[in-house]
Amino acid sequence: MNAGILKTEQNYEKMMFKEVLKTGFFEFQAAKDKYRELAIEGMHQGLVFRFIETQTLLLAPICPHLCEYVWSLLGKVFFFVTDCNPSFIYLSYKT
């Protein structure tokens, strides 16, 4: 996931929004699907929620209304668009 975050961040910096959508949505979804196929004992709940939060943060500058809705479904209380900067994702999930 961290590699996808970095690729998406680099595409944002270059203002390559079609590539942002490719790396932030389609490649992220493909990684999740591959994980689901390989997870014999089922997907880890914490990792699934981390994936949803990360992808929501990555796509927020492109589709803020949808991301705000997903963010509220996750139980987050602050106003997503004004209080959150996607650049913190890599720092907070760096392992």
Automatic annotation (TrEMBL):
* Name of the protein this chain belongs to: Methionyl/Valyl/Leucyl/Isoleucyl-tRNA synthetase anticodon-binding domain-containing protein
Q: Which residues form the Methionyl/Valyl/Leucyl/Isoleucyl-tRNA synthetase anticodon-binding domain?
A: 3-75
Q: Which InterPro entries match?
A: Leu-tRNA-synth_Ia_arc/euk, M/V/L/I-tRNA-synth_anticd-bd, tRNAsynth_Ia_anticodon-bd
Q: Which keywords belong to this entry?
A: Aminoacyl-tRNA synthetase, ATP-binding, Ligase, Nucleotide-binding, Protein biosynthesis
Q: Which family does it belong to?
A: Belongs to the class-I aminoacyl-tRNA synthetase family.
For this protein, the record's PANTHER family field holds: LEUCINE--TRNA LIGASE, CYTOPLASMIC (PTHR45794:SF1), LEUCYL-TRNA SYNTHETASE (PTHR45794)
Q: In which organism is this protein found?
A: Eleutherodactylus coqui
A Gene Ontology biological process in which this protein takes part is:
leucyl-tRNA aminoacylation
Q: Can you name one GO molecular function term for this protein? A: leucine-tRNA ligase activity
